[in-house]
């Protein structure tokens, strides 16, 4: 807990910036003059890593993605961070570095890495209990395996998009409780899920320990796993969610690396029953990251509809990654692991409209008027998150998306 | 149904070869002298496409994978096939082409394409009924959605391996019916699944029709989705199979392209209830492909334990791919779609030991002595398949794997 590390980039010393020198998150940006390339955020600026003298092999930054750096391993990660800390703290470097700073206000942000595969977990006990109650009743809310397994399922990497990408309301099969047969319709119960995403930097073959898994993780992003609840309810038995989760998964533009989050490590909560030895953590592997969800109808101001914390999770990303390898499954650079919806113990800390509105039965009020059961066309949903210490915050940038109307049904899909 | 197309490669004219000139399946091979590269099988030989004059842009064959050719689209696929048919049928080309033929006997085969993402389906009604009965009882065997949705779930691309790769028995969490708590053990109910795999050649964004989906498919492979039934039974509720299916998925080394299978197209069976319009097929989109499964204990001869046919499926790969895009999910070159276990109506046509042995309760006899409930260490499991017409067969090569003992448990995983 060393407090703010000061930079000669003045905007990085503001107590309200997401990007002090302590953070140095990794992204990919472009401007009208610059093609997409790797950069790190510093205050209101971005440092262009394809141009500045960071002392590393320049080929690591040849592609507009962080995968090559991730694959280079923890020693390279540490060397890069140390060099950037020096460049951006010591005024002696200011003249040489300043030409390679770009204003965030004039930059477009892209997906920061090539997603190899995407796995989504189900690791908040509050969320699992709330959703389990809605889908299966209070008696069967928490599956018997839940307290022993970090339950996960494979998602779809091709649907991962960067913050700011519009999201088209999906079509899908759904069946109302009063109908015998399903219909193919635009989703009427389209929802968000507040999650964190862990990014696998180092690959593995064979099973790894929780400690090894933690070492493999390069960093974290905010993640919104958009979910069509009506499609999900009809399709998910017996093999799990499929098209309900395949429309889009939005991540924040900045990967916050583990060293930036190190002061905010925290323990997972006490176990309701003992874990099997392979899943026991050798130290604190969750993080105290304050999260909020805001909803803005088209043309109106936003309402914060939920406040939560990553520390509410029952399983850490390291435990999830360890379990992911337990059958011998190979992990690769660029694998993305969604934490699962992050819900806290109180109603206002629930990480999805499904839970916030009790399955749509109790719409929540918006500060600008009206209510929401599920997302409407034109709504913009924004996740924000930061690890906060005295005098500084480690932020991720916003993770945002606007719902656009479903496309017209093609002729061949009509009755 | 034009019958055998003769080649000057004499071994391609044998009625028993899997690889007549009609076939020309796509693989990647190496020899002690040649690095891995693209080739097509012809009789007992392989034609080296990096060396022969096929008239296409040579950069399509720069990598040891068929992805570039697949991404180039159906016109390129057709041009390549036409040119290879001419080169290998007309003796005028024999002198120029012969130096680029390599004996299969001296070649090693590799994964023929880079798997982008892997999706597995559940599309045999016989299989879904048999397994549903074992997991959920006869009353709930076929889920209510099954007759309307080509049920699928996302699998793990990193676990896809080529035929001939050994398979390590996985560790995993499992819980016996007489135990309150799970244990972490090597799987005792390790199984195969007889499947076909469809390979997406052309990418898509947004929803595609069944016809467009069929047009996007480059070809088919045999596929064995190794499955740990004890891990699966404990983990699969509520989000589907995860580590039970992540140890390995083996595919045959040769991609059989659609034109080779064209004479063998056949209709899906009559519908038990009408499909929604978007899933209706404009023509026959299954294939009549005869399949068999053989099991050989270590050091012993093999027993054919099942005989089936791809035509038993309720849903075609084109229907599955159409449904996969229905929520707007983008598909990419190299996506692999497993058909789901192919089981026919008779006991001997079941595509997994789980079904063949009624959940392990009725072990099957082996011709060489002994019985099997599930796979034992040292067992070699082989899938074979061919579309058969008078005088020729379109084969895939064997899809085989040998079970090796589970690795020793690492210290950190011990109690």
Question: What this model shows, in words?
Answer:
Chain A is of the alpha+beta class and 415 residues long. The first copy, chain A, has two domains: 10-110, Fumarylacetoacetase, N-terminal domain (SH3 type barrels, Roll), CATH 2.30.30.230; 118-407, Alpha-Beta Complex (Fumarylacetoacetate hydrolase, domain 2), CATH 3.90.850.10. Chain A is built from nine helices and 27 strands. In chain A, strands 6, 7, 8, 13, 14, 16, 17 and 22 form an eight-stranded mixed beta sheet that branches. In chain A, strands 9, 20, 21, 25, 26 and 27 form a six-stranded mixed beta sheet that branches. Chain A is globular and about 70 Å long. The model of chain A has no long low-confidence stretch (mean pLDDT 96).
Structural class of chain A: alpha+beta
Total E-strand runs of chain A: 27
Q: What is the CATH T-level topology of the largest domain in chain A? A: Fumarylacetoacetate hydrolase, domain 2
CATH architecture name of the largest domain in chain A: Alpha-Beta Complex
Please, what is the oligomeric state?
A: homodimer
Q: Could you estimate the helical fraction of the residues of chain A in percent? A: 10-25%
Biggest contact: A-B, 70 and 70 residues
> By CATH's scheme, which homologous superfamily of the largest domain in chain A applies?
Fumarylacetoacetase-like, C-terminal domain
Hey, roughly how much beta strand do the residues of chain A contain?
25-35%
Report the C-alpha radius of gyration of chain A, rounded.
21 Å
């Amino acid at each position: 807990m060393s407090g703010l590390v000061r930079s000669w980039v003045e905007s990085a010393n503001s107590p309200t910036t997401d990007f002090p020198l302590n953070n140095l998150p990794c992204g990919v940006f472009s401007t009208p003059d610059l093609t997409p390339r790797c950069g790190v955020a510093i205050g209101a600026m971005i440092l262009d890593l394809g141009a500045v003298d960071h002392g590393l092999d320049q080929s690591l930054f040849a592609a507009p993605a962080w995968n090559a750096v991730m694959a280079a391993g923890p020693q390279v990660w540490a060397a890069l961070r140390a060099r950037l800390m020096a460049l951006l703290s010591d005024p002696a470097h200011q003249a040489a570095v300043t030409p390679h700073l770009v204003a965030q206000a004039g930059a477009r942000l892209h997906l920061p890495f090539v997603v190899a595969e995407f796995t989504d977990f189900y690791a908040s006990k509050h969320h699992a209990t709330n959703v389990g109650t809605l889908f299966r009743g209070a008696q069967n809310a928490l599956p018997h395996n839940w307290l022993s397994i970090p339950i996960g399922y494979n998602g779809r990497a091709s649907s991962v998009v960067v913050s700011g990408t519009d999201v088209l309301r999906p079509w899908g099969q759904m069946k109302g409780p009063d109908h015998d047969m399903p219909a193919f319709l635009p989703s009427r119960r389209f929802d968000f899920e507040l999650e964190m995403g862990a990014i696998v930097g180092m690959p593995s073959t064979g099973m790894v320990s929780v400690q090894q898994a933690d070492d493999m993780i390069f960093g974290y992003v905010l993640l919104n796993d958009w979910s069509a609840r009506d499609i999900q309810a009809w399709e998910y038995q017996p093999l799990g969610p499929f098209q309900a989760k395949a429309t889009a998964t939005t991540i924040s533009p900045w990967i916050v690396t583990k060293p930036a989050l190190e002061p905010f490590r925290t323990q997972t909560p006490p176990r309701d029953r003992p874990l099997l030895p392979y899943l026991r953590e050798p130290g604190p592997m969750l993080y105290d990251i304050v999260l909020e969800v805001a909803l803005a109808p088209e043309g109106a101001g936003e309402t914060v509809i939920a406040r939560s914390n990553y520390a509410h999770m029952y399983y850490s990303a390291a435990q999830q990654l360890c379990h992911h390898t337990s059958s011998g499954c190979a992990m690769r650079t660029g694998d993305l692991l969604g934490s699962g919806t992050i819900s806290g113990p109180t109603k206002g800390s629930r990480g999805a409209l499904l839970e916030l509105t009790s399955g749509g039965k109790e719409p929540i009020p918006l500060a600008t008027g009206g209510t929401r059961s599920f997302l409407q066309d034109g709504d913009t949903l924004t996740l924000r998150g930061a690890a906060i210490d005295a005098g500084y915050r480690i932020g991720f940038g916003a993770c945002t998306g606007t719902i656009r109307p479903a496309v017209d049904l093609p002729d061949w899909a009509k009755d």
